[in-house]
Design brief:
Length: about 220
């Protein structure tokens, strides 16, 4: 059995049923994804628009592509025809552009709002207050299906910090579900990567995004 198939089995067996495993395949070539596909994987995550576009054209159409990277509005037309979900909505400007694209193309776009966690200023995402501000006007975004939250914990070996990040986003998700009952699809919590997905499961992750633990290190 190849390393990838073995890794995939190991990771899958550590993720409970009901939690979706997104195989983050960014920077890996199409044959590598095909191997995971042939082993039964259908959910893939990509973070570069052009790369998602090219892979989607070459791989079977029953793959559900999750876009997980920073998205510039001039690139959305590469992503939205193929993406099952955009997990990384990180500005109102982007949200409006995605909504407009959805309207022009008669398509509903499933989206997660990215909560900025941790201290790193390089990270994208909203504050809690900004997310409430958007959800207060959710009805204005007729083509957007608000499906939940995405977050990346602080990049640190300190598990207490990671737990604090996950506790914060998890509590926020629960609070939003109580406050915005009209948003019936708002149920996903996408947290956890190779290093911390097992911790994320303890905090109610409904989706984990795992790259390195499946495909090995990326060559940038
Ligand atoms: C690359 C990436 C991942 C996967 O990271 P690994 O450490 O390789 O598992 C998860 N989420 C996002 C947003 C990413 O960009």
């Amino acid at each position: 059995m190849s390393d990838i198939v073995e890794n995939l089995r190991r990771v899958r067996s550590s993720v409970p049923g009901g939690v979706e495993l997104i195989a983050v395949s960014k920077f890996h070539p199409v044959p590598v994804l095909k191997e995971a596909y042939d082993a039964g994987q259908r959910l893939f995550g990509e973070n570069r628009p052009q790369e998602l576009h090219e892979k989607a054209l070459q791989l079977p159409s029953d793959i559900r592509w999750h876009f997980i990277g920073h998205l510039q509005t001039n690139k959305i037309k590469l992503v939205l025809p193929y993406a099952f979900m955009v997990q990384s909505i990180d500005s109102e400007h982007l949200l409006r552009a995605v909504d407009e694209w959805g309207r022009s193309n008669s398509k509903k776009i499933r989206c997660l709002l990215e909560l900025h966690l941790g201290a790193e200023e390089t990270k994208h995402g909203f504050s809690e207050e900004e997310i409430r501000g958007i959800l207060d006007h959710a009805a204005d975004y007729g083509s957007i299906v608000f499906c939940g939250l995405m977050g990346m914990a602080t990049n640190t070996p300190d598990e207490a910090v990671i737990r604090a990040d996950f506790a914060r986003i998890s509590a926020f998700e629960v609070a939003l579900q109580k406050e915005y009952t009209a948003l019936t699809e708002f149920r996903e919590l996408s947290i956890g990567m190779s290093q911390d997905y097992k911790i994320a499961l303890e905090y109610g992750a409904t989706m984990v995004r795992v790259g390195t633990a499946i495909f090995g290190p990326r060559e940038y």
